[in-house]
Amino acid sequence: MEFSSPTADDGQAVHRLIAACPPLDQNSVYCNLLQCTHFADTCVAVKRGDRLVGWVSAYRPPQEPDTLFVWQVAVGEEARGLGLAGRMILHLLEQPACAGVERIKTTITPDNSASWGLFKGVARKLSAPLDDAPWFLKGQHFPPGHETEQLVSIGPFEPPGGLAIPSGRPAASTHFTDPTPRKGDQHV
Q1: 34-93 residue pLDDT tens
Q2: Do residues 24 and 106 make contact, with C-beta atoms less than 8 angstroms apart?
Q3: How far apart are CA 139 and CA 102, in angstroms?
């Protein structure tokens, strides 16, 4: 399997792969094209031959330069059970675009056991704590039928491979603007 940054030529294959991986939310092909171009340095496409079998879209929120926000993880049926999802995330952390990343954030619905297992496994591999709390709420932020998305945070952790922030200065720790008033945090 070949790990690489995506290009615009991967956009339609990304769209098809995500469609084949419920319960992932489908974005437009245009959105996938933007991910494959504007965010290529923080995304990874994995091919087996000429077929796309793995995809991670991620980005570094401008307000949180020490964080990699993982948007979607998709693994095609033929590549499931090989640990590919976790390997893709760890691969991203080793890329120059992720120098200085000390945290991973993502959102997961409570019933998505595959994603919970994936991110708990990544936290173990990074020897980092995993915390979660409700973020985007069912009935408030989503239309009927979409469950609450838990904001999951892994870290802090030591950057893999000794990657440091290019400037040599530590990143300022900042936080997402959270639209959800809530009481307390949940920890996993």
Answers
A1: 999 999 999 999 999 999 999 999 999 999 999 999 999 999 999 999 999 999 999 999
A2: no
A3: 33
